[in-house]
Design brief:
Distance between the termini: 75 Å
Bound molecules: pyroglutamic acid
Radius of gyration: 22 Å
Largest sheet: 6 strands, mixed
CATH class of the largest domain: Alpha Beta
Strand content: 15-25%
Strand order of the largest sheet: 7-6-8-5-9-11
Order of helices and strands: HEHEHEHEEEHEHEHEEHHEH
Structural class: alpha/beta
Number of strands: 11
Number of helices: 10
CATH architecture of the largest domain: 3-Layer(aba) Sandwich
Length: 324
C-alpha cells in the first residue's frame, strides 16, 4: 500500500513537472506607460494568448521601458533576450527604410488611409522583420500626429532654433527642414525632458500628450494630422519556431483580435485625448497658413527622399497604396 502510494505520488509529480516544462512564461518589453491604450491592449492580448494556448504561453507585459528602453526593445527580441516585444516600428527606419513607411508626412493621414497603406506594405514588412529574426504578430496605430509647442506658431519660421524632441528619422528630418535642433527622446523620458527644458516642442499624438501631461509645460497643440505611425508586436523567430502549431495559432488569432480591438480603441480615444488637452488649458486647433502648407511641402520632399531610399520595394508599396 505504501509502495503504491509512492508510485502514485511520483506519477503525480511527473505529470506536474511535465506540464510545468510545457508552460512558457514570456516577458514582453514595451516602451509606453501601463495606462496607455497600446499597453492595455497588450495586456488583453496576453490574457487571450494564455486562454487560447490552454495556459501554455503566459505573456508578462513590462510597460514604460522598464525591462528594455524603447530603443533597445527590437534588438532585445531579435537576439532572444526577450521572446516578444512591442515597438514603434518607424523608430528603426534607419535600419530599413520600409520600417518608416507609416511616418511619411501626409502620405496616409486618416485611419482608413493608414490601413490601406499598411495592407499594401504588410507582406514586405513581414519579410523585412523575418530577416531581422522577428515574426510579426500585430500592429496598432497611434492617433494622427500633430505639433506641440509653447507659443503661437504661424509658420515654420517661428520654429527656427526650437529644441525639438524626435522619436524617429522622420521627426528628426522635419527638425532639420525647419531649422530646429532635434533631440532623440523616448516617450518615457518626455515629461522630464520638457520639465528640464531639454526640449520645448515635438510632434506626436494627443495620446502621448496626455500620457506625459504636457500641459504642465506646453500651451499649443496644432492638430496637423501629418501621419499615423504604428506600434508593432513581434516575436523572436527562434522562440516562434519552438512553439507547436497550437501555440502559433494562439498567437496568430489573438494578434488578429488585438489589431482589431486596438484600432477600435484608438478611434474611440482620439477625440478624448484632444479634449483632455483642451480641458487642461491647451489651445487645440488646426494649423493655419502658411504653417500647414509649409509642412505639406516637407511631406513632398520627404516622400521623394523615402522613395529614393526604399528602392523598388518602396515604389511597389506606394503604387499599390495609391491604386486602391
Ligand atoms: N506617440 C509615440 C509615437 C507616436 C505617438 O503618438 C511617441 O511619441 O513616442
Amino acid at each position: 500500500m505504501k509502495f503504491l502510494n509512492r508510485v502514485a505520488m511520483a506519477a503525480a509529480l511527473a505529470t506536474t513537472s511535465a506540464t510545468a516544462a510545457l508552460a512558457e512564461t514570456w516577458d514582453m518589453p514595451m516602451a509606453y506607460p501601463a495606462t496607455n491604450f497600446h499597453s492595455e491592449n497588450a495586456v488583453a492580448f496576453a490574457a487571450c494568448v494564455k486562454d487560447a494556448s490552454g495556459g501554455k504561453i503566459e505573456i508578462v507585459t513590462h510597460p514604460n521601458g522598464a525591462l528594455f528602453s524603447g530603443n533597445d526593445i527590437k534588438r532585445a527580441v531579435q537576439t532572444g533576450q526577450a521572446p516578444i516585444g512591442e515597438r514603434l516600428l518607424s523608430a528603426h527606419a534607419n535600419e530599413n527604410p520600409l520600417y518608416g513607411i507609416d511616418s511619411i508626412p501626409f502620405l496616409a493621414t486618416s485611419f482608413e488611409a493608414s490601413d490601406k497603406l499598411w495592407a499594401a506594405a504588410s507582406e514586405k514588412l513581414k519579410a523585412a522583420l523575418e530577416k531581422d529574426n522577428l515574426v510579426y504578430v500585430y500592429a496598432v496605430p497611434w492617433p494622427a500626429q500633430g505639433l506641440f509647442t509653447k507659443k503661437d506658431v504661424g509658420s515654420v519660421a517661428d520654429l527656427k532654433g526650437v529644441k525639438f524632441r524626435a522619436y524617429n528619422a522622420a521627426t528628426a528630418r522635419i527638425a532639420d527642414l525647419a531649422g530646429m535642433a532635434p533631440v532623440q527622446i523616448e516617450a518615457a523620458e518626455l515629461s522630464q525632458a520638457l520639465a528640464t527644458g531639454v526640449v520645448e516642442s515635438f510632434i506626436s499624438s494627443g495620446a502621448t500628450g496626455v500620457d506625459s501631461k504636457v500641459w504642465e509645460q506646453l500651451t499649443h497643440f496644432y492638430d496637423v494630422q501629418a501621419w499615423v505611425p504604428r506600434n508593432v508586436v513581434f516575436v523572436n523567430k527562434d522562440a516562434w519556431d519552438g512553439l507547436d502549431d497550437a501555440g502559433k495559432a494562439a498567437l496568430t488569432s489573438c494578434g488578429e483580435k488585438a489589431a482589431a480591438s486596438g484600432l477600435a480603441k484608438v478611434k474611440e480615444l482620439t477625440g478624448v485625448y484632444l479634449k483632455t488637452l483642451a480641458d487642461n488649458g491647451m489651445k487645440v486647433a488646426p494649423a493655419g497658413e502658411p504653417l500647414a502648407g509649409e509642412l505639406k511641402g516637407f511631406g513632398q520632399t520627404m516622400t521623394e527622399e523615402w522613395l529614393a531610399k526604399a528602392g523598388d520595394d518602396g515604389k511597389v508599396i506606394i503604387e499599390a497604396y495609391r491604386a486602391n
